[in-house]
Amino acid sequence: MRLGLKLFLGFFLIVGIAAFFVMRIFVNEVKPGVRQAMESTLVDAANVLAEMAAADLKAGHIRDGRFVADLARAQRRDPKAMVWRFPKRTLDYQVTITDAKGIVVYDSTGRDVGRDNSRWNDVYRTLRGEYGARSSPETPGDDTHSVMHVAAPIFDPADGRRLIGVLSLAQPNRSIDPFIAASQRAIIKRGAWLIGLSALIGLLMTAWLMHGVNRLNRYAKAVSAGEPVPPPKPRRDEIGDLGQALETMRRKLEGKAYVEQYVQSLTHEMKSPLAAIRGAAELLQEPLPDADRAHFARSIESQAQRLTETIDKLLALAEVEQYGWLQKHERLALAPLLQAAADAVALRAQAAGVAIRVEAGAESIQGDGYLLRQALNNLLENAVAFSPAGTVIALGAHAEGDGIALTVADHGSGVPDYALDRVFERFYSLARPGTGQRSSGLGLSFVQEVARLHGGRISLRNREQGGAQAVLWLPSRLPSVPPRR
C-alpha cells in the first residue's frame, strides 16, 4: 500500500471513528434530553394546576367545580401552533386527582375514577412528601409507547401544610417523538457532512504532503540517474528541510566524485607536456649548440603554455558542468553578441591571416550572455586554427525551426571522418595544420555543456565546398530543466 493511501486511510479512520462515537453519543442523548426537558415543564404545570384545584377539592366539588370546567374548556382549544415544522392542534395533558388516601376522585379522561393509585410511584412518593414521577405504557402490555406522569401535592388552602390530595399530570411521550426523530436525523445529516468534509480535508492534506514527497522522490531518482535537476523548492516544514538536506548531500557527493574524475583526467593530460618539459630541461643542462638550446627553450615555453591553456579550459568546463540548470538568463541582441565574440579572437585571426565576417539574420535570443560568448569564442578559435591564411570565417545567426542557429563556417581542411563522432569528447583534439600541435581538447566539450544548459544542441559537419561548419542551435524558450548530459 502506497504512503499516500496509508496517510489518507489513517486520517479518515481517526476522524471517522471520532465522528461516529460523537454522533452516537449525541443521538443517544437526544431522547433522554428532550424527555428531561418535558418532565421539567410537567413539574411546573402540575404545581400550578394543583394550586388551582385545591379549593374545589377541599369543598368537595372537584368533579363539578370551576377547575374542572376551566380544564375542559382548555382541552377543547385548538392551539393552531407550528412547533419546529410540526403542527400542534390539541392539548396532550391528562389530569388525575386523588384524595389524601390515593383514591382517584377526578380523571380528565373519565376512566379511572375510584381507582386506588396509592401504589403508583408518582402518587405514593408525593403522599410521603417526596417528588413523585413515573413512566408507564400508554397501553397495558405494549412498551412501544409510554406516558410520563408527574405528581404535585394539593394542600389545604387554609393550612398550607396539610395534604388533602395529589394531582398527577400525564403526557404521552409520542407527542415529542417527532421532535426527537427530527433532531436525530439532523445530527446524523450534519455528522455525515462532517465526515465528508473531514475526508475532503484529509484528501487535500494527503495530496499536499504527497506532492512534496513525490517531488523529493523524483529529485532523488534524477540525481541517482545522473540527470541535472534544480534543487527542491524551499518549504517551511520538515519536507523542505529534508529536501535541503538531500541537496546538500548531493552537492557533497557530486563534488567529491567530480574532483576525483577531474584529478585523474588532469594528471593524465599533464603527463605528456611535463615529460617534454623534463626532457628538455635535462638536455639544457648539457653543453648544446645555441640553435638546439633555443629549440628546447621554445619547447619548454610551448609545453608550459599548453599546460596553462589546459588548466584554464578545464576550470571553465568544470564550472559549467557543475551547473544543474542555467544560473541566469536574459534577452540578448544577437548582432552585438556575435560581434563581441568576433572581437575577442580578432588578434589571433589577424596573426593567422584569417578574416571573420559577422552576419546576424535574427534579432535576439534568450540565454546567458557570458556562456554564449565563451562558446562562440571556442568555436571561432577552432576555426582560426584550422583555416588557411587568406580565407574568411563566417559567423552568423538565423532562425531555424522553433529556435536560433548560431553558425561558424570555415574554409579549412575539414574534420576527418573517423573524428566526427569524437570531437566533443573531453581531451580529444586533432593536430593543427602546419604546426602539428594539439589543443587541450576541452573547447568543444565546453560548447556542448553550454548548449545543454540552454536546452539546445551542438553539431559539427564538413561542408561540401570545403571546410567545416559548427552549428549551435538554441531554443527560443529556455526549458525549466536542461536535458540530461
Would you tell me the overall average pLDDT? 79
Total domain count: 3
Largest sheet: 5 strands, antiparallel
How many beta-strand elements?
14
* N-to-C CA distance: 35 Å
Question: What is the number of helical segments per DSSP (H or I, 4+ residues)?
Answer: 10
CATH superfamily of the largest domain: PAS domain
Oligomer: single chain
> Could you tell me the radius of gyration in angstroms?
51 Å
CATH architectural arrangement of the largest domain: 2-Layer Sandwich
* Helical coverage, percent range: 40-55%
What structural category characterises the helix and strand content? alpha+beta
Overall body shape: rod-shaped
Give the uncertain stretches in residue-range form: none
Features of this protein?
485 residues, alpha+beta, Beta-Lactamase, Heat Shock Protein 90, five-stranded mixed β-sheet, 10 helices
Describe the structure.
With 485 residues, the protein is of the alpha+beta class. It folds into 3 domains: 8-183, 2-Layer Sandwich (Beta-Lactamase), CATH 3.30.450; 226-322, Helix Hairpins; 326-485, Histidine kinase-like ATPase, C-terminal domain (Heat Shock Protein 90). 51% of the residues lie in helices and 19% in strands. It is built from 10 helices and 14 strands. The protein has helices at residues 3-59, 66-75, 121-127, 177-224, 238-284, 290-321, 334-344, 346-351, 369-386, 443-453; strands at residues 81-83, 86-88, 94-99, 104-107, 133-139, 142-155, 163-172, 330-333, 355-360, 364-367, 392-400, 403-409, 457-462, 468-475. The strands form 4 sheets. Strands 4-3-7-6-5 form a 5-stranded antiparallel sheet, with helices on both faces. It has a 5-stranded mixed sheet with strand order 9-11-12-14-13. It has a two-stranded antiparallel sheet with strand order 1-2. A hairpin with a 7-residue loop joins strand 6 (142-155) and strand 7 (163-172). It is rod-shaped and about 160 Å long. The model has no long low-confidence stretch (mean pLDDT 79).
